[in-house]
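note to self: the first set is below, dont mix up w the second
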Amino acid sequence: MSALNFRIVQSHLAPKKGRTTEERLQEQIEYQEKELCRLRQAALRDPVTGGANMRCLSMAYDWMEEGDPVSLLYIDIDGFRKVNDAIGRDAGDAVLTAVHNEIERCLRWDDVVAREGADRFVAMLPLAIEEDAHAVGERLRASIEKMVFKSREGRFRLTVKVGCSTRHEREDMSPVITRADQAARHSGRNGGNMVCAS
């Protein structure tokens, strides 16, 4: 640790009289460990939804055993930019959080969903073959379609386009996401609010 870092950490700790140097150092070490833990957690969380981010999803993907099936869902909110422009960014962030929470509710206990950016999410379904992923995608699509959102402009609903893809053998995550994204784009070209497999 540099002297500067030591002084910064030291300044965050209120001095306590009657403590030995060893006790003060131990207190500073404990403080740094807590801060490090907090920063590690923050590095794996999406700042808008509070859920996992893509780094966290990538780590979970890498932990999967070689040869086990893994499917990904690429979930894109239909026409969200217009909604966001109409209701404002803060309300738009609240909508994204609500959609994220609904996706989580529709997934299985060991599935992971991360916000990929803007209005897009990626869900990883361990041990799920393409038919399983399609069924989960259809369940969450139908569930989001039933949600009702309120704003100052009135009530509104959202739909999502969902693309599914299953990894081939030892395939990295990137090409699986690309295929799922392409499947979601195919859904969009056909009007959205549907689930398509790659």
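second set (the one i keep forgetting abt)
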Amino acid sequence: MGFFSFSKKKKAGNVYLGESTRKSGSKKIYTGMTRRPVKKRWGEHISSVKSNSNRTWVSRGKSFRPLGAITSRNPEKAEKTIKKLKPYQKRYLSRGASMRYRKKQRETN
């Protein structure tokens, strides 16, 4: 019975960044991870803000603006690393990520 090894290989995913404007007017950087399409996940965040629910961190704000996404073979590890960065480092990273993401989208379409 030990002929086959059924190890689960982790699927690649994306780490994405977004800017949440809070009700006080301050702007916070949100870091998230998904294995689904990033545009769909961003849309969920935007609709949660519009629904005025206070269930999630993003929905407690006034608005959510996508900043960029980074593809990773190990998105959990990448998300932990990015969350430890300072806000100005996350903004710098998101600028490059958004340019790479847009370029990738143009190539696939």
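remember for set 2: The mean pLDDT is 86.
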